[in-house]
Specification:
This protein has a six-stranded antiparallel barrel. 0% of the residues lie in helices and 70% in strands. The N and C termini lie close together (6 Å). It is built from no helices and six strands.
Length: 80
């Protein structure tokens, strides 16, 4: 089950083609999360037509997270 984790302050992406960028480091209220590998990524669109992106990834501590962009705001969730 996905549980909201912490407030996202900043996201650092690997450089490359814009469409293929993946998160590298996420800064939160309590520290930083380092991405080990991206498991899944994609684009979303809600009922109002607002677009977003999501990334499911494993961090260096072997936890699974979901990072979601909606309306220009990033949220992070922890799988538990």
């Amino acid at each position: 089950m996905w549980q909201e984790y912490q407030q996202v302050k900043r996201i650092e992406f690997y450089s490359g083609m814009k469409a293929d960028e993946s998160p590298r480091r996420i800064s939160t209220e309590e520290g930083e999360i380092f991405v080990k590998r991206v498991i899944e990524q994609g684009r979303t669109m809600d009922k109002t037509g607002e677009r977003g992106m999501f990334f499911v990834f494993e961090d260096t501590e072997e936890r699974i997270f979901k990072l979601i962009s909606k309306g220009g705001v990033w949220q992070i969730f922890l799988w538990s």
